[in-house]
Amino acid sequence: MTVKEMYEKFDDRIPKSLSEPWDNDGLMCSPDTSTEVERVLIALDVTEEVVDYAIFQHFDLIISHHPLIFKPLTSVTEDNHVARKVIKLLENGVSVFSFHTRADKVTGGVNDRLCDRIGLFNTSPFGEDFLGRVGTLEEQYELEDFVYKIKQALGADSIRYADACNPVQRIAVVGGDGKSYVSAAIAEGADTYISGRIGYNVMEEAAEMGINLIEAGHFFTEQPVTDYFCEVVSELDPDAYVEILDSNVIKVI
């Protein structure tokens, strides 16, 4: 299967129509879309380390969640860190697909995978853009016990939480930066809301708003989508070699 053919199949599965208007995702770069795809590297981010690994290990394609190119490039020289990566990729025959907000919304994508990791049932979309998910646990938890469960399930290095003194059972989630979805989660009747980043000013008002707030890390709440990308590639081309690479460069002491 060529780069062009694989992108078209991904585009059918995760359509551009799901992307937010402000977003930039899709086919980020390709030196030759007629290249046969034999080796696919999947990562949440296209960091320089990911680029170098893909080149060294002779991958034909990188698939990421966060866009390689988000803001327009005004020039393509090695002086700009994004352009520098694009140059490397093109010189070494590596293409990049990035599926961002469309992968947040698509069935089976970021937020459905997050629900699966947490153990939510009877999930449904919420929010004006239907990006978030809300569901229920099979059993009720005390908040601190549930936070430990999430930390283990996501492999998170740290978790921040604010206690509104609610037992935990009906939960809303938005992977990544989800501070703008708190009101929508409350409107859905959630007793607890989980996102990667919520922020101090919102977290301190959790008890006043009547909802437990859990900040589990941007990377850790979105990393499960790499499994989804891996499964899609394997369905489209069972003969392709697929590898997931951890792209997290943010450390906690």
Chain-wise SSE layout:
Layout: H1 3-13, E1 26-29, E2 39-43, H2 48-56, E3 61-64, H3 81-91, E4 95-98, H4 101-105, H5 110-118, E5 121-126, E6 132-141, H6 143-154, E7 160-162, E8 168-177, H7 182-187, E9 192-197, H8 200-203, H9 206-209, E10 212-215, H10 218-222, H11 225-236, E11 241-244
Parallel strand pairs: 2-3, 2-11, 3-4, 8-9, 9-10
Antiparallel strand pairs: 1-4, 5-6, 6-8, 7-10
Describe the structure in your own words.
It is a single chain. 35% of the residues lie in helices and 24% in strands. The protein is built from eleven helices and eleven strands. The protein has helices at residues 3-13, 48-56, 81-91, 101-105, 110-118, 143-154, 182-187, 200-203, 206-209, 218-222, 225-236, and strands spanning 26-29, 39-43, 61-64, 95-98, 121-126, 132-141, 160-162, 168-177, 192-197, 212-215, 241-244. The chain is elongated, with a radius of gyration of 19 Å. The mean pLDDT is 97.
The overall pLDDT, averaged over residues, is: 97
Assign the CATH architecture of the largest domain: 3-Layer(aba) Sandwich
Number of helices: 11
Through-space gap between termini:
44 Å
Q: Tell me about the biggest sheet?
A: 6 strands, mixed
Q: H/E order of the elements? A: HEEHEHEHHEEHEEHEHHEHHE
What's the CATH class label of the largest domain?
A: Alpha Beta
How many domains, in number, for the residues?
2
What name is given to the CATH topology of the largest domain? Udp-n-acetylmuramoylalanyl-d-glutamate--2,6- Diaminopimelate Ligase, Chain: A, domain 1
Structural shape: elongated
The residue fraction in helices comes out at 25-40%
**What class, by secondary structure content?**
alpha/beta
Strand segment tally? 11
**Which residue ranges are poorly predicted, with pLDDT under 50 across at least 5 consecutive positions?**
none
At the fourth CATH level, what is the homologous superfamily of the largest domain? NIF3 (NGG1p interacting factor 3)-like
Based on CA atoms alone, the radius of gyration comes out at: 19 Å
Strand order of the largest sheet: 5-6-8-9-10-7
Which band does the percent of strand residues land in?
15-25%
